[in-house]
Design brief:
With 383 residues, the chain is α+β, with helices and mostly antiparallel strands. 26% of the residues lie in helices and 21% in strands. The strands form seven sheets. It has a five-stranded mixed β-sheet, sandwiched between helices. α3 crosses α4 and α7 crosses α8. It starts with 7 loop residues before the first strand and ends with a strand. InterPro entries: ACP_syn_III_C, ACP_syn_III_N, Thiolase-like.
Length: 383
């Protein structure tokens, strides 16, 4: 077993969903497609779109605030902020640094994980689980956010129908329960051009069939390797938190594992493929709503054409009951810092994103498992 010894707790989650909803009917009005075509091939019925004057960091700040509140900590308690976007506000400064300033997390280390596409968020979570292993950090804010809809070609149905915008947050802390910790994981990479962004700021291009073949092959295999490393039979995993890219891919992967779809919370139908935020929206949907049954295990999984992973995390976590996605933050912008009136300041970031030519006490313990590129959690939940 390849686990980490220090217990890690997920003590709060949060989500930000932009208020604008883009339906399949709206896309069908300008693309050679239909609601029936989109639903049959992706399972997606709607997605969110971030306002043009907002940036990825704005969504991060709006998702972080309810996560901090749920965890019962303030921004000043945060020792590190790790953000996993592929639609960063700009190359420098980092999105994490912008979020740190907006929240007032004065002493937090900051880091962006940006080069593994949809796997950014899970890899950020994996790194965050390692920080409490030393005295360097006790409380870590992990964020995954992408304005993925902003960077797709509006005339390309092979990409535009998939993507939506969202942000998710999780607070990781040291925990006292001795059985907590990272149990095992599986990460891998495979160079391919199933999805690529050519030079000179072109839009992403995707080979849908190749992505399907890669995902349905790698996803179940990686899950099995991670559960094997963690010495946890896959049939004991109660919750599967999977990359929310395509409902059909999720169904196919679970079928190969002999796992019913009911064990995997689904957000792709209403939010589309939200990039690195997908697993976090699923986590918030299940645990933010306080729906985990006793003695459960959860598995999280996320992948990209070049990177994938599936760690098994055993973590003691206090997760209080919350409204789930139905009550997720849906403001057009997050509260502005005191210097928001300064010339050139927009939202939480100094610059609006431009990318690809676009503006861019628990009474009892419940064990949870999560499989994505990140994995198995055990945690006490407030009943």
């Amino acid at each position: 077993m390849t686990g980490l010894p220090v217990p890690v707790a997920i003590t709060g989650t949060g989500v930000h969903l932009p208020p604008e909803v883009v339906t399949n009917a709206e896309l069908a009005a300008t693309l050679d497609t239909s609601d029936e075509w989109i639903v049959s091939r992706t399972g997606i019925r709607a997605r969110r779109r971030l306002a043009p004057d907002r940036a990825t960091s704005d969504m991060c700040v709006a998702a972080a605030r309810p996560a901090l509140a749920a965890a019962g900590v303030t921004a000043r308690d945060v020792d590190a902020i790790i953000v996993g976007p592929y639609t960063s506000d700009q190359p420098l400064p980092s999105t994490a640094l912008i979020v740190k300033e907006a929240l007032g997390a004065d002493r937090a280390l900051t880091l962006d994980v940006t080069q593994t596409a949809c796997a950014n968020g899970v890899q950020a979570l994996f790194l965050a689980a390692h920080l409490p292993q030393t005295s360097a950090a006790r409380t870590v804010l992990v964020l995954a956010a992408d304005c993925a809809a902003r960077v797709t070609n509006s005339a390309d149905r092979t990409t535009r129908v998939f993507f939506g915008d969202a942000a998710g947050a999780a607070i990781l802390t040291r925990a006292s329960a001795p059985q907590g910790g990272l149990l095992g994981w599986d990460f891998g990479s495979e160079l391919s051009y199933d999805v690529e962004i050519p030079a000179a700021g072109e839009y992403p291009k995707m080979n849908g069939r190749a992505v399907w073949n890669t995902a349905t092959r790698c996803l179940p295999d990686s899950i099995l390797r991670a559960t094997d490393n963690a010495a946890v039979p896959v049939e004991e995993v109660t919750h599967f938190f999977l990359h929310q890219a395509n409902l059909n891919i999720i169904q196919a992967a679970l079928d190969k594992l002999g796992v019913p779809l009911a064990r995997a919370p689904i957000t792709v139908q209403s939010l589309g493929n939200t990039g690195s935020a997908g697993v976090f929206t699923a986590l918030h949907e299940r645990f933010g709503a306080g729906r985990s049954p006793p003695e459960t295990r959860t598995w999280c999984r996320r992948s990209a054409p070049v990177s994938s992973g599936a760690p098994c995390v055993s973590a003691t976590c206090d997760v209080t009951r919350g409204p789930g996605l139905a009550g997720a933050t849906r403001r057009t912008s997050c509260p502005e810092p005191a210097d928001a009136a300064r010339p050139g300041f927009r939202g939480a970031g100094r610059l609006v994103s431009r990318w690809a030519g676009q503006n861019c006490s628990p009474d009892w313990t419940r064990r949870i498992a999560a499989i994505s590129p990140l994995g198995l959690c055990r945690r006490p939940l407030t009943p």
